[in-house]
Please model this.
Amino acid sequence: MNNTMIFIDEFAYRSPFANCHAMLKFIFTAVVLILCLLFRDIAVSIYIFVTMFLCNVFKNHVKWNDYVKLLTIPFLFIFFACIAIALEINYNNIFFISVTKQSFLKSIFVMMRAFASVSILYFFALSTPLCDMIWILQKLHIPKIVIELMYMIYRYIFILIDVQYQLKNASLSRLGYIDFKTSCRTFVNCIANLLILSIRKAEKYYQAMVSRCYDGELAFLKKESIWNIYDVIKAVCYIFTVIAVKYISYSI
Model:
C-alpha cells in the first residue's frame, strides 16, 4: 500500500498527460464516470475498463504489471462486496443461504461497473499532479479550510510512511521479527514509537512552515495552461463512443 501511494504520486508528475488541461481531465473523468453509473450496462462497463487499461498502459506509459497491482487493491473490496450481493438468505421454516442466477448475474454486473469506475478514476489519478487537483478544487469553490486540510493530511501520510519504513528497517536489523512472539512485541513498540515520532515530526514541520512566513493560510502555485483543441476533440469522441456502445448493446 505504501509503495502504491508513492508510485501514484510520482507517476502523476511524470505522466505524458500531466501537461493536459486539468479541468478538461476532470470534466472528462466526471462525464465518463456518470455515464458508467447511469447506463448500468455490462457492455459499457467492459468497454470503459478495457479502453482505460489500454490508455493507461500504452498512452500513459504505465507498465501493465504495475497497473494490475493497482487494480488488486480495490479488487479485494469489490470481490467480497459482490459475494455478499450474490448470496441470498432465505428463511422458510429452514434457514439457508443460496445463490440464484439473478443474484449471480447482478453481482457480476456490479463488479464490472465498479472496475470500470475504478479504471477511469485511476486514469485521472495517474495523470493529474496534486497541484492540479488543488487548482480544480479552487475553481470549484471548495472551502479553503477543506483544501488545506486535505493537502496537509495527504502530505503527512508520506511523512508517516517514511518514519514507518525507518522503524521497520531498524527492527529487522535487530531481528525484531524472528518469531511470532517477538514480532507482536516489535509491532506494538513500532506503533508506539510511530505515534511519538509523528508528533515530533509534525512540530518540526510546523516550525518550518512558520519560518517560511506561514500565517494560517497556504498559498498554492497556480499552473497556467491552455485548452488544447485536439485533446477536447479526443475526449468528446471517446464520450460519444461510450454512448454508441450503450445503444448498440441495447439494440442487440
Q: What stands out?
A: The chain has a mean pLDDT of 83.
